[in-house]
Amino acid sequence: MNGHALVVIGIGHDGPPGLSPEAHAHVESARVLAGGRRHLDFFPHWQGEKVVLGGDVPAFVGTLQERYQQEKTVVLASGDPLFYGIGRALLEAIPREDLVFLPQVSSVQLAFSRVKETWHDARVISVHGRSMEALAVAIAARALKIAVLTDARNHPAAIADLLQRSGAGGEYALWVCENLGGPDERISRHAPVSMRDASFSPLNVVILLRATGAPAGGAADLPLLGIPEAALLHQAGPRGMITRREVRLLALCYLELRPGDVLWDVGAGSGSVSLEAARLSPRLQIFAVERDAAAFARLESNVAQLGAGVVRAVCAEAPEGLNELPDPDAVFIGGSGGRLTEILGTVMERLKPGGRLALNCITLENFCRGWERLRELELEPEATSVQLAHSRPLGRLHNLEPENPIFILRVRKR
C-alpha cells in the first residue's frame, strides 16, 4: 500500500448523521474530500481541498489517482459505492490494496424495506445512462420483483409506458421511492396506466411487483432454451419450414455469441433463431432479415411477442438489404432465395475479423454450392450433418420417424 489509502465512503440522503464513527474519523482526518456536489454540501464547514465529480468520470478518477498518493483523500458516494457506483471505475484505475470501502445501505435495500418486500429474489436493473433493453427482457419474462435505478430520461413514467407497451401494465404494481433516507422521503404506489403526466424527484428508485396469480404472458412460460415450435407463428411445409429447436440450438453453439455482438439472421422465416438468440443476452443486437411478405408478417408478430426489444425485423432481400445494417460479429443463413453465392460473398466481406458464420442447408445442391463458395473465398469451412428422429405411435406401439437431414456449414473469418 502507498503512504495513503483512498477511502470511499457511502453516504445516504440523511447525510453525516447516518455515517459510522469510523467514516466520520476518515472525513475529519482527510486533506482532500471528493464526490458529487450534493455529497460535498453535507460538509459546508469542512476545511481542505474539495474535488467535485461532474460528468467526466475518467477525469475525476485521474485526479484522484494523483491526489490520494500525496495526501489523505476521501471519496463520498451514494449508498454502496460498489453497487452501480463509482467503485467500479476506481477498481479499474487504482490498485485494490490502496482502496478502502465503507458502504452505506444501498437505495435498493431501502426501497424494498419501505415497500416491505424481500429482495433476495429480485432482479435489480440500472437504466441510469443505459437503454431499457434489460428491463424489457425482465418484463417480458414477467419477473416477480424488479428494482430499477432511474435517470432523467428513463424516469418512472417512462417505465410505466414500457409496461403498457409490453402488455404487462395490468400485471404490475409500480412503487416510486423518492429521496430515500431523507427528511423529504416519499413512497407512493401507482397503476402504470395512470402515470403519463406524473413527475417525481430525480432521486428515486422504482420497484415493480407482479401481482400474485397474474396470468403469465409473453415469454414468461417458455423454457430458457429451446422455444417450442408451437409458441411461434410459422407456415408448415417446405416453403415455410421452421428451424427445429434441436438444430437451432446447435447452430447457436456454432455462432458463439457474446454480449454486445451484432447478429444477422438472413432468411429468418419465422425468426426462431433470432428469438432463441435474444433469450441469451439483452445486449445482443439482432437483425432478422426476411424478403417474403407473408413470412415477414409472421416474423413481426413473433418479434413483438418474444423479441424483448433485442430483435429488429427487416423486410428486405439479401444481399442488397444488408447494406444498411451494422457489420456483424455472427451470421446465420437459414434461407437464400436461390442467391446463396451472392449472399455469402457479401456476408464474408462484411463479417468482422474473427466473426462466425453458420449456414443451414436442406438440399445437397445448396450444401455443395455453399462449400465451394466458401473455399473460393479461401476459407476453411466445417460441415455437420444432423438427422433427427422422433417417436410416433404405431398402433399400440411406437416407432422412430426420421426427419430429413440438415447440413450445417460453419466457418470463422480469419
What does this entry show, briefly?
The chain is an alpha/beta fold and 414 residues long.
Outline the secondary-structure elements.
Blueprint: E1 6-11, H1 21-29, E2 32-35, H2 37-40, E3 49-52, H3 57-67, E4 73-78, H4 87-93, E5 99-102, H5 107-115, E6 123-126, H6 133-140, E7 145-149, H7 156-165, E8 172-178, E9 186-190, E10 204-210, H8 245-255, E11 262-266, H9 272-278, E12 285-290, H10 293-306, E13 311-315, E14 330-333, H11 340-350, E15 356-361, H12 364-376, E16 382-386, E17 389-394, E18 397-402, E19 406-412
Parallel strand pairs: 1-4, 1-5, 2-3, 2-4, 6-7, 11-12, 11-14, 12-13, 14-15
Antiparallel strand pairs: 7-10, 8-9, 8-10, 15-19, 16-19, 17-18
**Termini separation (Å)?**
44 Å
Shape-level CATH architecture of the largest domain = 3-Layer(aba) Sandwich
Overall mean pLDDT score? Answer: 89
Strand content: 15-25%
Number of domains: 3
How would you describe the overall organization of this protein?
By secondary structure, the chain is of the alpha/beta class. It folds into three domains: 6-105, Tetrapyrrole methylase, N-terminal domain (Cobalt-precorrin-4 Transmethylase, domain 1, 3-Layer(aba) Sandwich), CATH 3.40.1010.10; 108-210, Methyltransferase, Cobalt-precorrin-4 Transmethylase, Domain 2, CATH 3.30.950.10; 229-412, Rossmann fold (3-Layer(aba) Sandwich). It has twelve helices and 19 strands. Strand 11 (262-266), helix 9 (272-278) and strand 12 (285-290) form a beta-alpha-beta unit. The longest helix is centred in the C-terminal third of the chain and has 14 residues, at 293-306. The mean pLDDT is 89.
